[in-house]
């Protein structure tokens, strides 16, 4: 029981740390007013990397051994652990999905940044792709996420126009 208590304490520390990571990941992002859509992709790539690393750690043999010992001891700590494990998996899958869908827009990011203000030729296909993401993505189809993405696309268009005017 002494070993079980020490292992439970270790798992409680892990639970606290993982909860902190999950809370921080859900906090509102602070971004510059003129940030473009590539920042959205970078944000989700970073988040995907973080959660994948966390998942790898959770699935490591060291952690699995501790969890199996606590399962054998019928530890009550495991209920919280399983819930957090599920939450981390959901967050990792969400980030992975969002990166996959945002990659479909990446070809437009460069076009928008380098185009002249007469970028109208790219807008219909860009908007069709955004619409497809909204319809198909299980995680990215919220008004908050779409608003953020469309704002960044608009920012990029404005920045492109400003650059064109300053160079012209």
TrEMBL record:
Q: Which residue range or ranges hold the Dynein heavy chain tail domain?
A: 5-166
Q: Name one GO biological process term.
A: microtubule-based movement
Q: Which GO terms describe its cellular component?
A: axonemal dynein complex
User: What top-level branch of life does the organism fall under?
Assistant: Eukaryota
Known InterPro entries for this protein?
Answer: DHC (IPR026983), Dynein_heavy_tail (IPR013594)
A GO molecular-function term, please? Answer: dynein intermediate chain binding
Name of the protein? DYH5 protein
